[in-house]
Amino acid sequence: MAGKSPKSQGFEAALAELEQVVANMESGKLSLEDSLTAYKRGAELLQLCRGRLEDAQQQVRVLEEGTLKTFQITGDASLS
């Protein structure tokens, strides 16, 4: 379960690891200690993924007629 340092992982790698951590926890085969370790790792990965998404949203802002305009998402693309 020991992956790369969260800071050095890309979004896709962090998301894939997070999915694996969740699958391992949902299997019910982890000891209490391993479950706590997995939970902590999952929380780190979730924070990384959210940060990367926020960074991407910031970069999507476009300059239009001299003012910054936020990119508007159509449809239901929320992560909540």
Shape: elongated
Name the helicity range: 55-70%
Q: What is the number of beta strands?
A: 2
Listing every helix as H and every strand as E from the N terminus to the C terminus, the arrangement reads HHEE
Gyration radius, in Å:
17 Å
Which percent range describes the beta-strand content? 5-15%
CATH topology category name: Helix Hairpins
Distance between the termini: 26 Å
- Calculate the mean pLDDT score and round it: 81
What is the CATH H-level superfamily? Exonuclease VII, small subunit
**Main β-sheet: number of strands, strand sense, barrel status?**
2 strands, antiparallel
Number of helices: 2
Order of neighbouring strands in the sheet with most strands: 1-2
Low-confidence stretches: none
Keywords:
80 residues; mainly alpha; Helix Hairpins; two-stranded antiparallel sheet
Characterise this structure:
- The chain is 56% helix and 8% strand.
- The protein is mostly helical and 80 residues long.
- It has a single domain (6-69), classed as Helix Hairpins (Orthogonal Bundle), CATH 1.10.287.1040.
- A two-stranded antiparallel sheet has the order 1-2.
- The relative contact order is 0.14.
